[in-house]
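Input.
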Amino acid sequence: MEKQDAITGLAALAQESRLDVFRLLVQAGPEGLPAGQIAERLGVPANTLSFHLNQLRHAGLITFRRESRSLIYAAEFAAMNALLRYLTENCCQGAPAGCGPGFCDPTALTAHEMREPHL
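Output.
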């Protein structure tokens, strides 16, 4: 991942509604969710949601497909993982195993640790 791609991705996620949309789509998995269902679950007006979805698409963090008359949005997991890799590639001077469990390996975190950041 290039630095500019990371900046674009982080900028897209740096807005509360877009972060909520992205997290919802990550939870939904590869099947994704229809735009109407996203709007309903998050209580976001359709025109506002459309703007946020376009920002996330522009950043490469989500994709969409058409099913009949619905647009189904899904998280782009490869882009998400690339962003996480970019952010942690130099963790603990390039030796993440030396940092202890969970510091540079998000898969090692417990649900509680993911809610409570180590800041």
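The longest helix spans residues 16-28.
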